[in-house]
Amino acid sequence: MGVRAFVVGFVFGLLSLATAADDWASLTKRLHAPLASGEFSQVKHIGGLPLPLQSSGIFVVENGQLRWLTLLPFESELRISVTEVAQWEQDSKVWAADAQAQPMVATLAKLMLALVAGDAGALAQLFQLTQFEVIDEKCWALTLRPLDSVLAAHLTEVQARGCEYLAQLSFGEAGGDTTLIQLSPQS
Amino acid sequence: MIRMGQRHLAVAWGLCLCLIALCLWVRLENYRFDASLLSLLPTAQQHDLGTQRAALANKHLTDLLDRELLLLVGAPDADTSAEWAARIQSAIASPTRQPQTVDATDVTQFSEAYFPHRYFLLAEQDRALLRDSPDQLLRRAQQQLYSPMGAGYQPIADSFWLFQNFLQSLAEQSPLSVQDGWPTLTHEGRVYRLVRFRLQGEAFDANAQAGLADLIDQLQAQLPTDVTFFSSGLVVHAAYGARMARQEISTVGLGSLIGVLALLWMSLGRGSVIALLSCVGAGLLLAMTVSVWWFESLHLITLAFGATLIGVGIDYGIHARVALASGERLRVLLPALLLGLVTSLLAYGIQGTMPFPGLQQMALFSCVGLLGAWLSACLWLPLLTDKGVHPRKIFQWVHHYWSRVPALPLKPQWVALLLIAALALFWQLPGDDRLSNLQTSPASLVAQEQTFQQLLQRGSKGQYFLVAADSEAELDARLMALNEQLAVLQGRGLISDFQSLHDWRPALERQWHNRALQESLYQTQGQSWFESLGAPALANDARQALVESAQPLTLARWSAQMPQPQFFFKSTEELFAIVPVQGVIDASSVQALSADNIHYVDRPATVAGLLSHYRLQLQHWTAVAIVLALSLLVWRLGWSALPLLAVPVLAAITVATVLSLWFSLTLFHCLALLLVLGIGFDSCIFLLAGAQPKPVWYATSLSVLTSGISFGLLALSETPVLHFFGLTVLMGLLLVWSAIPSVYKGLATDRVLVNRADYK
Predict the structure, then answer these.
(1) Which of A55, A149, A158 to substitute to test the interface with B, most B CBs within 10 Å?
(2) Which pLDDT does position B694 carry in this prediction?
(3) Alpha carbon of A137: minimum distance to chain B alpha carbons (Å)
(4) Collapsing DSSP states into helix, strand and coil, what is residue B94?
(5) Domain count, chain A
(6) Transmembrane residues, as ranges (chain B) (predicted)?
(7) ipTM, two decimals
């Protein structure tokens, strides 16, 4: 990292510092209801693939662990915790990514866990709130950027919007791939 | 007339010393004192290929480690640990200690270097799946693709996530990952940041060490209670060792100086004190000047031993002063003084014959120092008046002891037999030659180092296999065979772990096999995979990418782009792989894997072996020196003097035997025994050559007392080497002193028989 990049980052940081604290407080106020379970639909746009990859299923949060059960186009289960992201098949773990070894996976896991749980404090440890928009009394939209420079080089932008709870989450990667997830509480 | 000539000589010698002092001053301007323990040790005698290669590898590894200063800063949360890591980094950074930082480009550079060879690389798990159940591998790839966490998918370049998985398997080998710009690890809820420094210039240079020990202590003191840091790196140990040595040299040096001064003042009066100290000062000055001009860098431990010369060099002075004051003429004294010098030089000079840098330094320093002190005593002391040199009341007990002990008549032939038996015993006395005996680091530092290595899951670099080959293929083949055997040992629990170059760059044969597996996957499954993604046209592109990447990751390429120099290096003709082995439980089964070009290197054991070799050699040479000195002395003083001359020898061997049986006999104990011999012989020579035993006994006692003070202080040292040294000399001298009167009184020489009448 060149000196100039550092200076730019520093000035930028100073400017955003003043408003950031208010925004986090405001977000904390609005994002208070955790999602215990619900349905999701996900659309992934991957550079080079002509069609988006669509999937849908249900999710459950229990004991700080997010169980992500894809039902379509095929059944599979992902269990996401702060320390590990693991693929399960018929109650046995078939594959796992250690959070320590993969900071990117770890950050995404923490992001999802924090948003679903409505934990703005956990977000503030990893991200910088670059934009926070209050739409009406209940609804909001935000844009985040990873604090970690190594991560920011891969995960360029995170957007989320919701009212009482998180309704939509999207993130963009450096390569141009995007993932858009819609969530709705279980009716 | 003689008096005038004497005066001229004394003045000339004084002027000479002024010139010598000038030489010393010039040289000290930018002289470097060494504190590294390793530089005291001998280099391996390079007789066979294995040791030659091991020396090469050791040099390679020490060069790497010498230049490393690592700190692990731990705190309960990420922010605090990052904050303190940054603070500590900026506090320690200096032009000679350059902080090493990581940023995004370092991480991408690493994967970019592997990328062109991705079809040749596979994670172990993927390799097994590809071989046994490719269906499962496909299912997993699909799950990764649809997972919200599955980021960074490259449809053409890495269709089945295999390269990503390979990179992850590499990352998992280290407990560290880059977070918030720091290499980070989490252990039991604490976040640790690794702060790295690269040392510029010589690692053991005073500049690199300057203030490091104090700085680390200060930082430790500033830390909040829940923040900790551990340091690692030879430079830290060297810095602490040097600081301790410096402190102890000043306390031991100053302490013995004050003690000796007080003692001499009380016993011989003010005039003698100044004269005797001038003699010792002249000796030290000469020794220091010659040593710093002779050696590139003088070790601090040499100086510590040198400081003890205050005690030994003063020996001649005391004997000469007491004898001159009691009416002897220098001309009469000179033969005894000369005999004393020769035996001491013999005892000290022996050290210089070993190819052991530390010993050579000490030998030169001691011999030159003694010569200087001796010359000064001979030239200066006769000029003093006799005033004030009378036994004081507080030293009456010395004479009481002499007159109380019974005479012990010993037959010279029996003593000779005893001596032969003792020397034969001494020849083979077993010792303790572990390197840890020479450890100069404080225990807290050693504990820190251990915690550090545990947290980082780094094993000691002490034991490893060194694999040598002429070509890459040969090296790969040997490494693969060795890795397989080591895996078996690991499975049987005989070793806990090992690391190999192949973890980071698989063998070429393995790489081609990986590529065949991937090629078959792309050929058989590519089409249906891309059809399921709605992009059947890409299958061809993906296959094309595989075909175009036909270069395996060669050793040359790997070592140029992503060096892991702890696993690989090359000399002009050969390639070398280093396979560190940890937790060796059964050394013999590990040793058994050695072959022609596979050498097992156990550095602690090798050093211990060397120390043992030199300790035995020193024992042998000491025995030879004893025989030579005894022959010389018996020739000059007569056969009947043998029982008394045997006293220092038997005392030294007794101490050695006691140490060997109940404590530990090290190389440094043996050195200490040489001192006992030197001082002991001096006393015996003067007793036998002097006319009256009373002043000689008084001088002998004073000289044992002064040595006792200087070496007794050494015994208080926390540096094991110095502690051993002091304690051994103290015990030896005590034995010599207490045995001399009885044995002397029992002697059957004419002179003793005459003397016995007037001094009881």
Answers:
(1) A149
(2) 80
(3) 30
(4) strand
(5) 1
(6) 249-266, 273-294, 300-318, 330-350, 362-384, 414-430, 618-635, 642-665, 671-689, 696-716, 722-744
(7) 0.85
